[in-house]
Amino acid sequence: MVRSLVRIARLLHSTPRMASLESAKKAAAYKAIDEYVQNNTVVGIGSGSTVVHAVRRLAERVEEEGLSVVCVPTSFQARQLIIEYNLTLGDLETYPQLDCAIDGADEVDAEMNLIKGGGGCLLQEKIIASCAKRLIIIADYTKSSQKFGEHYKKGIPIEVVPMAYVPIQHKIEKTYGGIVKIRMAVAKAGPVITDNGNFILDWHFPVDMTDWNKINEEISLIPGVIETGLFISMAEKAFFGMQDGSIKEQILHICKI
User: Fold this and answer.
1) pTM of the model
2) Which SUPFAM superfamilies does UniProt cross-reference here (predicted)?
3) Does residue 125 have an active-site annotation?
4) Residues 138 and 67 occupy one common structural domain
5) pLDDT tens-place string over residues 37-91
6) Are residues 125 and 67 in the same domain?
């Protein structure tokens, strides 16, 4: 936690672009916390750099307004943030339904579909999102796209059972095209290991892919796939902090037949 805050402080003093990005993240996070977190509620706390700002703002409101809020984390990082800021820590065993979840995203398309899992927490993030009455996304302006792959170039994360990663690689590449790579760790030899003891594959998909709901369902059915980083029609609203300090809001539109 302390290292995360130090890293953010360094970013703020590095380059104008980095400072702009952090300011945008902070603006989006503060807006979401102020608008969606109320007294006597249970809140899912997401993962990633933007969520650090959200937790800080939540802690400020708890101290200033005396809010009673229980926080359920999506990852080890989120849990440490909750503890560091002296917020009330909860879990799904005690609180199986959440009032809302506040989380980041790697990319949000024009239909409010999300790519998540760049930080490796996609499974727990999706579980928390599925237990929340509403999922609210906070991000900077670089995460807003018309279609997947427009800005985010690291592929769609897929969490898999370690013994099955090679067959899953071959299956996805043969069925849909593109390239599937196992995510390798930076500070250790070998692959990234998730909080759940699994591997992560990153699928660099062809640019002409469109029916993400169908693709998500099909990949999820491959034996050995634990979860995908495709969050289809799960988010109710997204707040994007913009370069000029404003907030862009995007909502999910569901057509009823």
Assistant:
1) 0.89
2) D-ribose-5-phosphate isomerase (RpiA), lid domain, NagB/RpiA/CoA transferase-like
3) yes
4) yes
5) 999 999 999 999 999 999 999 999 999 999 999 999 999 999 999 999 999 999 9
6) yes
